[in-house]
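Per your request, structure below.
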């Protein structure tokens, strides 16, 4: 049996990789770019850094660009609308996505909607979107989602509070410029949330029913990079070496899950994000220890491999010992990274319990829980949501 692997066509990795954007455009034969980003990137001067190198180059290759800087965290159909209109009205031949997963996901959705029209809902899973949109050059500024190297975008329908999972080669950026120096400015809370997101991608890709030999190598490499460095970047955001490892780890974790799948943590996490506006990585973090405990009995060898790759179990430990250490570590990590409980985050318990059934149904409909080594029923999912309050 073979596995299909889909990757960006070009990856530029390392310090200042983002400044290679003019050469990347030239190599793609593109010269009219829409930069899709957010206001934080404008304020940090990151947009200016990109436009400056484009202007310098434009004396020889005449690069034209505009900026759409109104993307928002956890993007919605409404939040991308102005970007879709701008991309559709202009004569652009590519999109430069600069920012965290939210800006990159917004750019991917804009790239498809501007070219083919319709509603975002038309493109959600189980439809597979393989048709190419405007080519996207992705420049991530968080070490988290891996969206720069995934065939996925996630857009919330604000009318139904549903985080719509959209998949297919059409959402894979053509180029990914992976420049860890852009992550030095990420605040500690976001560093923790995005870092746990990346770790979750690697673990879920490895235990997924869709795991394959290729995704396994990427997932294990990602865990080796992320696990020893996540606490370091949380406590000291200036640690260049740790930021570098986290950034590469995040991209590899994205490649791993994009070519396997995510599983139960992500399936349960999206509805919490949509209903209660919890940042994606944070809702993953709330769920990761409990879901891992539930899932370990169905794939003890796989989870033990994760513990060993993360450096928290030694090769001589039995699978059972390694899994006990994994569960202890995931809880300790949440404590050290000050991951709040739903109550501490400010969610109303009564409100949460009133939507558990709907969240369970949305989670199952997304398809992600079906990839988990142990697949819960809707009733079990409701109990797992409620257990977050124990
Ligand atoms: P984000 O993009 O929402 O960013 C969080 C906050 O951090 C924003 O306010 C942003 O402006 C700020 N920020 C980003 N980079 C910064 C920097 N370098 N310095 C200072 N501040 C910075 O966070 P995220 O976790 O990267 O993305 C989350 C989104 O990605 C969610 O919508 C989630 O559903 C989605 N996601 C997508 C995929 C995929 O494969 N497409 C995978 C996982 C998650």
């Amino acid at each position: 049996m073979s596995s299909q692997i889909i990757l960006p066509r070009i990856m530029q990795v390392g310090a200042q990789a983002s400044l290679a954007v003019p050469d990347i455009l030239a190599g793609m034969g593109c010269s009219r770019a829409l930069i899709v980003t957010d206001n934080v990137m404008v304020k940090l001067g990151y947009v200016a850094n990109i436009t400056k190198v484009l202007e310098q180059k434009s004396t020889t290759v005449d690069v034209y660009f505009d900026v759409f800087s109104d993307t928002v965290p956890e993007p919605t159909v409404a939040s991308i609308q102005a970007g879709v209109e701008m991309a559709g009205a202009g004569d652009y031949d590519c999109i430069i996505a600069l920012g965290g997963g939210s800006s990159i996901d917004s750019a991917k959705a804009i790239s498809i909607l501007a070219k083919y029209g319709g509603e975002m809902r038309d493109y959600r899973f189980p439809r597979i979107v393989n048709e190419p949109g405007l080519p996207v050059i992705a420049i991530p500024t968080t070490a988290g989602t891996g969206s720069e190297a995934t065939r996925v975008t996630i857009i919330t329908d604000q009318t139904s509070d549903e985080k719509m999972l959209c998949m297919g080669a059409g959402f894979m950026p053509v180029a990914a410029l992976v420049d860890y120096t852009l992550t030095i400015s990420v605040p500690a809370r976001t560093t923790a949330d995005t870092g746990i997101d990346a770790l979750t991608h690697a673990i879920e890709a490895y235990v997924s029913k869709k795991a394959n030999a290729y995704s396994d190598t990427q997932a294990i490499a990602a865990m080796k990079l992320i696990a020893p460095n996540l606490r370091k970047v949380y406590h000291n955001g200036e640690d260049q070496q740790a930021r570098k490892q986290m950034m590469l780890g995040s991209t590899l974790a994205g490649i791993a899950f994009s070519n396997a799948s995510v599983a139960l943590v992500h399936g349960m996490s999206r509805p919490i994000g949509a209903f209660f506006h919890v940042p994606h990585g944070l809702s993953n973090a709330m769920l990761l220890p409990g879901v891992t405990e539930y899932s370990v009995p169905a794939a003890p060898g796989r989870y033990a491999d994760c513990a060993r790759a993360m450096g928290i179990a030694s090769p001589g430990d039995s699978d059972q010992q390694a899994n006990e250490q994994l569960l202890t570590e995931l809880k300790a990590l949440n404590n050290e990274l000050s991951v709040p409980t739903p109550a501490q985050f400010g969610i109303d318990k009564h409100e949460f319990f009133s939507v558990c059934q709907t969240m369970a149904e949305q989670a199952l409909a997304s398809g992600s829980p079906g990839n988990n080594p142990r697949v819960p029923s809707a009733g079990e999912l409701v109990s797992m949501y409620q257990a977050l309050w124990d």
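The mean pLDDT is 96.

Regards,
D.
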